[in-house]
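PROTOCOL LOG
Step 1. Enter all chains and additional molecules of the complex.
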Amino acid sequence: MPELKNVTVIGLGYIGLPTAALIASRGMQVVGVDTKEHVVRTVGSGAIHISEPDLDGLVSKVVSSGALTTSAKPEPADVFIIAVPTPIDHENRPDLSHVDAAVESILDILAPDNLVILESTSPIGTTESIARKIGERRPDLHVGTNGKEGGAVHVAYCPERVLPGRILTELINNDRCIGGITPACTRLAQRFYKMFVRGACVATTARAAELVKLTENAFRDTNIAFANELSLICDRFDINVWEVIDIANRHPRVNVLRPGPGVGGHCIAVDPWFIIDSAPDLARVMRTSREVNNSKTKKIIECAEALIDDHPYANVACCGLTFKANVDDLRESPAMDIALHLAAKYGPRIKVVEPNLRQLPSQLAEYRVDFMDIDEALRSCEIAILLVDHDEFKMVPLADRRHLDVIDTRGIWQDMPART
Ligand code: SAJ
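Step 2. Run joint prediction.
Step 3. Record the structure below.
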C-alpha cells in the first residue's frame, strides 16, 4: 500500500491553505507551496493572508508544531494536491496556465507510488491530460495502474466544494466526489480523503467528477438567473418580487433563490463558462443564465442613475462592496462594479459603507468618495443603494432609514406586513 504521510499542497489560496492546514492537523507532514513570495512568508510565519473564520488559529497551531511548512517550490512527497486558480480569459475561455505550471513544477520530483490530485475547477478532460503529460515526460513511471515492477503514479480529480465563510466546517463535513483516471487511482484518493473528511467520499470517473463540479455551480447560476429574471418581470408590473418569492416558496416543491445585483465571486460567475466553452451548441440555458445575471448589474446601475439624477443635491450611500454577505472578498463583485460606476459619475456625492473592509479599496479612492460606517451614512445621505445583505445592514431599524430613498437589491429592507 502506498504511503500517504507527506503531502505537498500547490497553491495557498482560499482552498489550498485551509486544506493544507486541516491535513497538517490530522498528523500528516505538509509543505504548502505558492508562487507569491509574500504568501510563502506570511503562512510560513504562522499568519494568514486571507480572511476565513477560525483559519488563523489553525494555521498558527500547525505552523508552530512544525506540521505545516511553506516553500516557493514543490518538494518530494507521497501526495501532491493542486489547488490553483483556473480563471477565464477575456473571451470567457478557461485559462489553465496555473494548472499547467503546477504540473510542470512536480514532473521531475514525482516518484513511484505518488498520488497526484487536482482540486481546481477544470474543464472535462483536464485530469486525463495531466496523466498523459506525466506519462509522456516521465516514461519511467507507470501512470494509473501498477506496472510489472509495481509502484504506479496515481492521478485523480477531487473538486473543492466549500462555501467561503464556512470553509473549515465544510472541508470536514461535505461529501467529496472523487474520480481517478483508473479505479485504482480512485480508490487510493478515497483512502487519502477519508483520513480527514467526515462526509462520504463518493467514487466516479475523472471526467464525471470534473462535470459534477461544473454542474453544481452552473445549476446555482441558472437558479439565480431565474430569480433575477423574475425581479425584472415584477418591476415591470409593479409587483414586489420578495413577496412573490416568499409566497411561491410556500409550495412544497418550489424554492426560488434570491435576486440580487448580479452574481459575483470566483466560482458561480465563472464555472458555467467551462461547460459552455466545451459544448457551445448544447449549453443554451447556461449561456442565457450568464447573460441574464450579468445584465442585472447593468439594470441596477441604470435604476441608480435615474434615482440620483432625480435628486441632484442628495448624497448617496452605497451599502456593501463584497461579492456576498459577511465576507471581505471583492472578486468579481457586482456591488463593486456598481459602486465604481457611480463613483466615476458622481464623485464625492457617493459615500461607501463596507463593514468587512478596513479601508476604501484603491480603485475607488481615486474618485474622492468617502468611506464611512453605516451610522454616519444614514445621517449624511438621502439615498441608499443597498448592494450586499451584510448582517450590519439587516440590523438597521426602519426608524433610522425612513428618510431614505432606497434601491434594495437584496430584499432586506422590505418591511412587508405579516400575512398570517
Ligand atoms: N447569490 C444570489 N442569490 C442567491 C444566492 C447567491 O444573488 O440566492 C449570489 C451571491 O450574492 C454571490 C454569488 O451568487 O454574488 C455566489 O454566491 P454563493 O454563496 O452562491 O456561492 P460562492 O461563490 O460563495 O460558493 C459557491 C458554492 N457553490 C454552490 O453553492 C453550488 C460553493 O459550495 C463552491 O465550493 C464555490 O462556489 C466554489 O468554490 O466553486
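Step 4. Note key features.
The chain has a mean pLDDT of 95.
The first strand starts at residue 6 and ends at 10.
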